[in-house]
Amino acid sequence: MEKFDAIIIGSGQGGTPLARKLAKKGMKTALIEKRLLGGTCINDGCTPTKSMISCAKVANTIQHSSSWGIHTEGDITVDLPFIVLRKNEIVQRFRHNILRSLEAEPNIRIIHGQATFSGVKKITVTQQEKPPLELEGTYIFINTGAATTVPEIPGIHQINYLTSTTILDMTVIPKELIVLGGSYIGLEMGQLYQRLGSHVTVIEPGMHLVSREDEDVAAVVRKMLEEEGMKIHTSSEPSNISTDGTTITMDIISGTSRKTITGTHLLVATGRRPQTADLQLNKTNVTIDEHGFVQVNDHLETSCPGIFALGDVKPGPAFTHVSYNDHLIIYHNLIEKKSISTLARQIPYCMFTDPQLGRIGLSEKEANQKGYPFKVAVLGMDKVARAIETGHTTGFMKALVHAATDKILGAAIIGEQGGEIMSILQMAMAGDLTATQLKEMIFAHPLYAESINNLFMTLDK
Ligand SMILES: Cc1cc2nc3c(=O)[nH]c(=O)nc-3n(C[C@H](O)[C@H](O)[C@H](O)COP(=O)(O)OP(=O)(O)OC[C@H]3O[C@@H](n4cnc5c(N)ncnc54)[C@H](O)[C@@H]3O)c2cc1C
Ligand SMILES: NC(=O)c1ccc[n+]([C@@H]2O[C@H](COP(=O)([O-])OP(=O)(O)OC[C@H]3O[C@@H](n4cnc5c(N)ncnc54)[C@H](O)[C@@H]3O)[C@@H](O)[C@H]2O)c1
């Protein structure tokens, strides 16, 4: 039984930087990874998808280049094997950087294998072609992330369906891609393959796409995707799936009506479940909820003293930046004896459709539920000088402003550079700036950001 000061299970976006920080403080640290260093974000999440989405944006720009007076001869050709290779090279570069940074810390031991608890602070690591390792840790950090959920639709297990991981290595463009789920993964990937040449159909049981968002935001997302040729069925539940080996047939129920759709490929993008089933948490006092998420308090401590959880394995928004921020909270509280709460943080996010949806703070729906008195500032991207000049007028900027304090409660920016504009408003919220200050703040002309002035001027009307 080898003893460590810290054992980190999973090399995700929280565990990896935490390992480095703890090791730098002189703690003997084990980082256990069953698959690839860097976890989901680097290997099959943010990095590969955003690399490929950038290629699809180029394809789209070329297809529409005549809008800018640039004419190309005939049809364009999409080289998917090259796009996949480019993506793989970026992923490998990022993964290599992680390995290098971990190897630079003498107090870190990287262990490749699957970790399970064998006691409260005891871990067994099963390794390929090697005997299992038995470890003991003063502190244990669970950073095991999440994996695709596959809904129990009759017939689905007879289909060779794709997940957000397996689709990334396909080198043939699906002719007709059915996407289950109209949220981040379904829409980012749906648009990616639509732009590369697939005919994409999205099936979403919710009343509208991106169900957490306000209806006006979801409506713009839908319109822009439909304009690119995507077919979208909302309020639609798949009831049966079958295949004859070539064509996939899916029955869907929409209210009282039934439809049948067909496709050549199926992508399952119906959410993710925490990877806790194999951890044998029953050997500890760590409690999980009914979905398998590790329960933590606002300091990310589990019910078992000395065991923490960070990232997607705990309930709440599942984003890379949340997992990264989780490690900062744990580090500052544990090592620097601070008392930072997860409740104090604002969580921004960005859906990388094109154009992007940048979000921070409350939606209109949430502000109403909280009963805040608020005003809504809305500015169409077709009123933004920069957007008109560049030819990117789809979408709008929307911000909620507290009627009494004039502070920003939340914002949704659907439009070119939507994530970047949202981040400016996030900074304004963090700095407690008022809408009036933003209305008169000097921004460089003609940036998209300059239209933050105009956004808040709409409140004067
Ligand atoms: C297609 C896709 C696109 C995404 N795009 C974005 C985006 O643009 N922006 C964004 O913010 N987020 C995005 N996300 C979400 C983001 O990837 C995750 O929120 C983030 O990676 C979570 O990190 P984590 O630290 O919780 O764990 P992960 O990165 O999931 O890492 C967990 C690691 O633990 C390992 N592990 C699990 N169990 C064990 C065990 N028993 N023993 C040893 N190792 C184990 C796993 O192999 C994995 O490497 C995307 C996700 C997907 C799937
Ligand atoms: N840009 C980003 O930040 C980004 C990008 C991709 C993924 N992610 C993260 O990855 C996680 C997973 O993303 P996701 O889009 O898979 O999950 P999600 O939980 O956001 O959405 C799942 C969608 O699938 C639908 N659904 C559920 N059951 C269904 C069924 N039987 N048939 C059809 N649709 C069904 C749901 O109504 C929902 O709209 C998210 O939590 C997100 O945080 C983030």
Oligomer: single chain
Question: At the first level of CATH, what is the class of the largest domain?
Answer: Alpha Beta
Q: Can you give the mean pLDDT?
A: 97
Write down how many β-strands occur, each being a DSSP E stretch of 2 or more residues. 21
Cofactors and ligands present?
flavin-adenine dinucleotide, nicotinamide-adenine-dinucleotide
Low-confidence stretches: none
Task: Please work out how many helical segments DSSP would assign.
Answer: 12
C-alpha Rg (nearest Å): 24 Å
User: Biggest β-sheet: count, sense, barrel?
Assistant: 7 strands, mixed
CATH architecture of the largest domain: 3-Layer(bba) Sandwich
Cα(first) to Cα(last) distance is 71 Å
The structural class is alpha/beta
Full CATH superfamily name of the largest domain? FAD/NAD(P)-binding domain
What fold name goes in the CATH topology slot of the largest domain?
FAD/NAD(P)-binding domain
Provide the domain count: 3
Helix content: 25-40%
Provide the β-strand percentage band. Answer: 25-35%
Molecular shape: globular
If you had to describe this structure to a student in words, what would you say it looks like?
The protein has 461 residues and is α/β, with parallel strands linked by helices. The protein has three domains: 2-147 and 273-335, FAD/NAD(P)-binding domain (3-Layer(bba) Sandwich); 156-270, FAD/NAD(P)-binding domain, CATH 3.50.50; 355-460, Enolase-like, domain 1 (2-Layer Sandwich), CATH 3.30.390. It contains twelve helices and 21 strands. The longest helix is centred in the N-terminal third of the chain and has 24 residues, at 80-103. The structure holds flavin-adenine dinucleotide and nicotinamide-adenine-dinucleotide. Nicotinamide-adenine-dinucleotide (NAD) binds next to α5 and β17.
